[in-house]
Design a protein that fits this description.
With 489 residues, the protein is of the alpha/beta class.
Amino acid sequence: MHRSSTTAHSQAPDWQSGRRRFLFNSIAGMGSLALASLLKQDGLLGKEGIAPKPRTSFDLAARKPHFEPKAQAMISLFMHGGPSHIDLTDPKPELTKRDGQDFSGDITFSFINRASKKLMGSPFKFQKHGECGTELSELLPHLAEIVDDITLIRSMHTGINGHESSIRYLNTGISIPGRPALGSWLTYGLGAESDSLPAYVVMTDPGGHPVDGVRNWSNGWMPSIYQGTVIRPREPRILNLEPPARLAGTLQEQNLKFLGKLNRRHLENHPGENDLEARISSYELAARMQGAAKEALDISQESKATQEMYGLDDPATQEYGTRCLIARRLVERGVRFVQLFLGGQPWDMHNSIRTQLPKVCKRTDQPTAALVKDLKARGLLDTTLVHWGGEIGRLPVTEGDPKTGGRDHNGQGFSSWLAGGGVKAGLAFGETDEFGHSAVVDRVAANDYQATLMHLFGFDHEKLTFQLNGQERSLTDGRPCRVVKEILA
């Protein structure tokens, strides 16, 4: 009886409960209004708007960028291993003058057991070239012929000495694995220009994949339709491109039509399946490629003079020259992004730099310059951006014996160059210190480089986004960076 009485007295009448609820709601509401007013007064209230809707369908349909682009295609000649800028593109008289002396600054070594603080001047001579007067090493005579067509950036910086981490930083926007490559971002943003060739093509080396392997052209967390399509380094460059004789012609067309009907029906029953949609698109592209790809890869159509310009008549340059020539043919036919890689990391010269550096320069210099010349002669350079560079440079001190050794990694300052696609011609931009160790003037970080590329293709790097798990992700992902407008034409 007592327990029931207590329970009865603890329950407030309905009219009291309603009054409390009314007062609470009124106070809370007035508080919210007051808070909103104060935030608006201080300029801290977010603007009204509708969040951008994520794409629900992924394909390679051509899309317009945010503003008028300068570049429509890109060929990236990536030099894995870290070309030695102080022996190739960034002359340092003071380093040569103080050859053999101890370096007084701080250095981060990757291989401490072979480390030295003895300065090593370049054993190669530099000379001014072109109307611009840019100095280049004697190891790059063909680059010297196009120096008036390039922007040489002497102040690249990642701040990372490791190969894989710097590669990912330059190629995906951050040093951790698992993100989409630059080519994936461009094809996601722009789509394809051709419906019978891939938008993003990767050309690998006969010596094998580059360091960090397939991550160099991975689509990351984007649908697989945006990953790079690999063209083999030897014939047949695309396996199974042609159907067996018994299936060719009308029979193949009927089979593909029927398969397409089944695939579309299956997709309708499984909406939102991005991988399924990408796989169907890949199958359809493969069928269309049978004629177009075979023609694009057939360099026998090129004149003898063109083939010789790329070095196809010289065993030292034939292989890389062939790939550079195919890259031009692909871009000419609407491929959006082409990357050429070297096997392993041939520019990683911890030993024998005096003998090894001339060899890799001999292999790549003539074909690289020929590509720029050829694009320019065909009126394609204005809209095709050509990139040459690696992920790091080399230290100004010797590693091992000064006469037979090499140089350790250096992510603090190194060189890359760009040509065409809206960049200035005949420009040397940025500086490293007097020894070539660190970028000190107009430093270009990896995200600056990416923001600038996006700008050339007509994109605000912060607004080209992909929604991942409810978050808007971009190539630069909100990290501090800038468009390097000083190098824009």
